[in-house]
Amino acid sequence: MKDSFRQSMAWLHTWCGLACGWLLCAIFLTGSLSVFRDPITRWMEAQPLATVAQGESLDTARAVDHAARYLGEHAAGARFWRVQLPQHPGEAMTLTWRLGDGTRQVALSADNGAPLTQGLARKTEGGRHFMSFHYMLHLPVLGFWLVGGLTLGLLVALISGVVVHRRIFLDFFTFRPGRGPRSWLDAHNAAAVMTLPFLLMIAYTGLSIFYTSYVPGPLRAVYGAEPDAYSRFQSDLSNSAQLPLSPLGPEGQTVTSQWSELMQRAQVLLGQPARLLLIDRPGAPGMSVRVLGLADTARPSQALFTPQASVLFDGVSGAVLQVQLPEAATLAIGERIYGVIKSLHFADFGGWSMKWLYFISGLLGMLMMAAGTLLFTIKRRIKSQREFGAATAGVYRVVDALNVACVAGMGVACIAYFYANRLLPIEMPGRALWEIRSFLLVWLAALVHALARPSHKAWSEQLLCAALLCFGLPLLNLLTTGQHIGRYIAADDWQRASVEGVALTFGVLLVVALRKLHRKPDSATERGRRSAKPAQVN
């Protein structure tokens, strides 16, 4: 009975891992990159170093006054206004508003309020592209549910894998290089043990973040199925501090011209600089202004969850309606639990060291899945199981191609996305969308290439392509923008310097992988290949 159960778990682990493994490799690689979505976005926006490197301090009060003046003149009657303040000297501020015919956006100079034709930044999704692909594959509805199903499959594969491998923790200390399938199994086990707690946590929290979508029954039972049900649910969860203070201006007058004073009051209340202003129903009697604070990333919070700090003002009188301090104690217990779950998944705690730990763990998780899918094909080369009858050889060929495309091909597509950012014309309509299309087209080309070429050559050629692209990225950046890693370091811009540094590191690792791939196999591997020939004929 026990052996029968383990055999069933082994079958489940094999086929669940294989069916989910290909897309999960892509999801984990893009998820790992999305941990650094802000530095990636800054690198892809390519703001001029000459202004970013200046030692001047930001005058956000003056920038806010410029924003208020521009919106009052050009966006009167809009449903909402959004002011994204610059975070570094020389950066532009972004104004967004919604009218009846759609949403408009403009970039203004923070120094003089003049509109910038192209802005100081390139139009790009930046690191947000990796995050969007990570949780919905750029397929808004289908992708959302597909990723949820794959995440469930990951949990099933993890649990069944623990059941199957009785000596999994002992095998962690055993690695036998050059032993064919045994080496791949050792690598699979070692990566699994190192990342098992992380993988269980990341899969569970990834599902839990969207609990009202994946399990909508409880929400509908309590709040009904009306469009505002979720808003009422969130309102009940909120327990923000209510601090009505004295009005800022005369009763009945909007305070558009006094935004800078509102922002300064918010900064005093929150103990943080402002990063974003949200104005609802501007110019109307019910106008409100919400100021969101900017947490200090140089001094990461010791708490697992730190809420987004914000102050809500009455847009007519300037009275403070609501204060959300950056302290979880001010939230209801349900919102605190949800905040912890989100913080665990997005690595919104522990500062940069925690982000690097998530990044490395995510890559190890991807390598664990890649080793598992490769192990399937290597074992079948040695002894075919003929699971698909006469079509078995063709199915194995497709599995080989999917292995190449979803591991090496995804790496090529990711680095090609950075190339598209630098090579597409700056004024090209729909530029950000074409960057994403370039990523998807390169990934599709990698799959076609893997199907057209023998497996061993496809691996070599795609790994070589990815390595060359990684090494060439700093040169491309220098030729197209005049910027490079040395100038970033000189300007103390370590975020953008790290993007190119990581690209070069990946290039070195890919070269190492290529050398391993072309290394002459030892006698044990040769014996395995010779013994595989009769099985392939039958």
TrEMBL record:
Q: Which domain of life is it from?
A: Bacteria
Write down the InterPro entries for this protein, in alphabetical order. Answer: PepSY-ass_TM (IPR005625)
This protein's UniProt keywords: Membrane, Transmembrane, Transmembrane helix
Q: Which residue ranges run through the membrane? A: 12-36, 142-164, 185-211, 356-378, 398-420, 432-451, 463-485, 497-514
Q: What is this protein called?
A: PepSY domain-containing protein
Lineage of producing organism? Bacteria, Pseudomonadati, Pseudomonadota, Gammaproteobacteria, Pseudomonadales
